[in-house]
Design brief:
The protein is an alpha+beta fold and 71 residues long. The protein contains two helices and five strands; from the N terminus they run ααβββββ. The protein is 18% helix and 37% strand. The longest helix has 9 residues, at 5-13.
């Protein structure tokens, strides 16, 4: 990628960017999230799987900027 590690990590650490990396046919929509991710952060969203609306909750369980995080 023609971007620096810090810039790329910041993009993926911002929950608002999840919609940009999720296929449009899933109709992804954030319901509630912090402005940025961190260990313990909860992100609530909705999506559609085969036409069925699904609520999803993600927790960031590990946080190691600018290298990795785990949900």
């Amino acid at each position: 990628m023609p971007r620096g590690l810090d810039e790329v990590f910041a993009f993926f650490a911002d929950p608002r960017n999840l919609a940009e990396i999720t296929p449009p046919w899933l109709h992804f929509r954030i319901v509630d999230s912090p402005g940025t991710a961190y260990r313990g952060a909860l992100i609530r969203y909705r999506l559609r799987i085969r036409g069925v609306s699904v609520r999803w909750l993600t927790e960031i369980t590990a946080w190691h900027p600018p290298r990795s995080f785990t949900d």
